[in-house]
Design brief:
By secondary structure, the protein is α/β, with parallel strands linked by helices. The chain folds into two domains: about 160 residues, Lyase, Ornithine Decarboxylase, Chain A, domain 1, CATH 2.40.37; about 180 residues, TIM Barrel. About 30% of the residues lie in helices and about 25% in strands. The protein is built from twelve helices and 20 strands. Strands 4, 14, 15, 16, 17, 18, 19 and 20 form an eight-stranded mixed sheet that branches. Strands 5-6-7-8-9-11-12-13 form an eight-stranded parallel barrel, surrounded by five helices. Helix 8 packs parallel to helix 9.
Amino acid sequence: MGKKGHSRHWWENDFVSVLDNELFLGSHPARALVEKHGTPLFVYGRGQILSNFKKLEDAFAGRTGPEVRICFAMKANPNPSILKLLRARGAWIDAVSPAEVQAALAAGFPADKILFTGTSVGWKDILQAFRTRGLTVNIDALEQLELMKEAREQGFQKNEIRVSVRWNPGIGRGFNPKAVTAGAKSTDGTPIKFGVEESRVLEAFERARRYGFIPVGIHQHLGSGWVREDFEAVKKAVDRMVEKASELERKGFSLEFLDFGGGFGPKYTRGQRLFPLNEYAGYIGKRVLEAGLKIRAIAVEPGKFLVGDAGAVLLSVEYMKESFGNLFACVNGGTFNMVPRPAIYTQAHHEIINASRVAARKKPPVTVAGHLCETGDVFGKERPMPLPQRGDILAVLCAGAYCRSMSSEFNMRKIPPEILV
């Protein structure tokens, strides 16, 4: 049961709850947050982020010999307050650009707790990475190594530069073709640009050592948005990673860590079957121990798992519109400026709640329309909800990951402010 004895909605958690038919974010009524900060507004929940972090820690606790590094994939949400919160909790960082590396350093992360995983990495990116002493550079291509060799000769010969290799295990999984990051091609036929293919991994390690770098790990990432049905394929990818690490050890490479990437996330829809995180952690631990690997650490890279369901966007209804039998709630925000996922990914779904009156007997289908000049600018199509009125507050849930970080100023509309409660 939820607050005041109401039946708990499937989307409620430590951050989002209902009291007297009104939506609360943390301990704050959505109404009060809007009165203080206005709309549109990003709201993040400190308690939910920490709860998700502990859930991940508990999943791995006692299941592995090596230490477990929880590396926040900060591309999901680089908010400085969230970064500082996770740093204090003991997180590491997965950064995919020099700017993300600098943001992590500014938030207090030491360079030796940051993994820089770039793709199509350029000369300037490499030079900036090499200037950050202690950073581990994750190699995405053999061709990247040639640029790194040239850059190292420009005054970095004396630096100890740690590297790992991102390999492509040939198995990809994701909720959308654009979110699949391994295999030869995505499900829509797009060639996958990430990682070193299996047959060239040993060559990458040998070449890295020959060029004076220090190989310390191997990394893989299958894609984003795993559900229960993906588990068997993910287990096969774990097997391939462990086998490849064993081969590298036999060839004389002393690996410090295996990084299994991210991919698991929160529940976006009622019918979604969550990826079995505890079984996954147990399987990784079992396979690593069975193989007798001498590694010091296992790493995972949660992004949306940590922050996805810890975020919401608050919007105000400007007016209701009827057209050709369609009913629109016209709000003061746009998807591209705040929640671009539905406009980019066909399968992306965010629950939308009438925060002013969560429940009602009648729930007509309402399309929540943004204020951008773009037909695809809808937060949700024909969603059953208590009929909004002018001035009502609508909350777009599960907006803590890949919403603010993917936002733009399309139509010269400003990106809204963010608060952590």
